[in-house]
């Protein structure tokens, strides 16, 4: 029974990692479609979403089945609970990717602001790297790496604040591009929220490894940090 439990736990970990990789791919493709104004690619992203939702449901079923198999030890229980909680964050990131893809299709004929899109691309690329680092941290139960992932979200918050201010000011000064700028605001908001969920993912790595529930979102726990960076 113990051997079977260990085997099934490894399968659950692998299933979760695959979900993480697929979520990151969906986010990458959604951002790419938006920047390149590629409605066809955006539609492909939208069509990926049901499979990600199914993956979360299957993962939950397998996790609960595993806990029913035998009474897991404390560290195994924490790992299973971390996977359960983190899978919800992955699903939410997938939802944001789908939203960005839908926005891409709606905005194909809108005027484009290259300078803003370049900043959005940089924001999306940093999130992609954070997701990759999270997946590695989860695989190795590397708490130090998880802290490093979470700390990067402050830069996402700063980029969001800078872009938000820039877009609002542009809308006030020129009413011509209000709709296009509203779409930019919608996309950067989803990217900023993606950063928050990646922080959540990092927190679950730490819970699994250290049995500690921590709050690691620096831009949310101390809002002055973002403003201090903007004022420099």
TrEMBL record:
Subcellular location: Cytoplasm
One of the GO biological process terms: phosphate ion transport
A cellular component annotation (GO) from this entry: cytoplasm
Keyword Cytoplasm listed: yes
Domain PhoU positions: 17-103, 121-205
Recorded superkingdom: Bacteria
InterPro entries with a match to the protein in the record: PhoU, PhoU-like_sf, PhoU_dom
Alphabetical keyword list: Cytoplasm, Phosphate transport, Transport
PANTHER family in the record: PHOSPHATE-SPECIFIC TRANSPORT SYSTEM ACCESSORY PROTEIN PHOU
Family: Belongs to the PhoU family.
Binding partners and assembly: Homodimer.
Protein's job: Plays a role in the regulation of phosphate uptake.
Name this protein carries in UniProt: Phosphate-specific transport system accessory protein PhoU
